[in-house]
Amino acid sequence: MKKQEKQMTTTRENGSLYTHIENKVATLEFGHPASNSFPSVLLERLANEFDKLSTNDEVSVIVLKSEGERAFCAGASFDELVSIDNLEEGKAFFSGFANVINAMRRCSKLIVGRVQGKTVGGGVGLAAACDYVLATEQASIKLSEFTIGIGPFVIAPAVERKISVSGLAELTLDATSWKNAYWAKEKGLYARVFETQNELDKEVEILSEKLASYNPEALAEMKKALWKGTEHWEELLIERAETSGKLVLSEFTKKALEKFRK
Fold first, then answer.
1. Which of 36, 123, 204, 237 sits at 20 to 30 Å (Cα–Cα) from 67?
2. What is the pLDDT of residues 201-244, one digit of tens each?
């Protein structure tokens, strides 16, 4: 039955988000027909869900995953990006991932990321905001924002926290290249990399069950310790969203995006 579910992906225009709680483990699964990308409404739902799970006494650990067997996450909705025509819209659009990362950061539960395939842009930020990430060999990453005249400013603090300034620079400045899963592991974004999704799922299950068996108070204190010194992100990430919102209105970016308009 599980294998059959894995094949299915949502056809909903605004994407899907499901939470399943069992044995103190909340599995949070998102999906979108466009390579599991995020329209603003889905990002808002995800941020709210993390806030909700943070105060749920029936949950000790959260597993974040996406639908299907291919891309983990293609970042924020490209259709929404190309339709931005003022600063207010731009700031609101880029605040989507800022709000999710902040919700993950302040969530009292440890978050395990399950990354089964390629991830781009905001999706890399999502993986970086998890506390522990397991991935497959197919889970290559790329930050291609420079190619359209913007930059990964909102997610940069989360990515830098995991892979250092040098790793962030390499990933951002080499904007057309994919970095493979082993590069991501070596840099610290992924904890472990597996050959197959079956192995990945088995290990995600083992790890989440182990974590859920530990003292929830100890887990919550560890979460605080891991994120110490990031309290200023509430303001920082929104400031970064404004920076990106300005850049998306630049002549350079408008020209770069013109070819993508429908």
1. 237
2. 999 999 999 999 999 999 999 999 999 999 999 999 999 999 99
Q: pTM score > 0.85 for this model?
A: yes
Handedness of CA 113, 241, 68, 48 (dihedral sign): positive
Residue 168 belongs to domain with CATH number: 3.90.226.10
Q: Which two tokens stand for residue 157?
A: 């603090």
Task: State how far the Cα of 159 lies from the Cα of 136, in Å rounded to an integer.
Answer: 19
Q: Report residue 249: phi and psi, to 5°.
A: -95, 0
Number of domains in the chain: 1
Q: Could you tell me if residue 148 is inside a domain?
A: yes
Q: What is the extent of the structural domain holding 161?
A: 16-196+210-259
242 touches 91 (CB < 8 A): yes
User: What single DSSP character describes residue 66?
Assistant: E
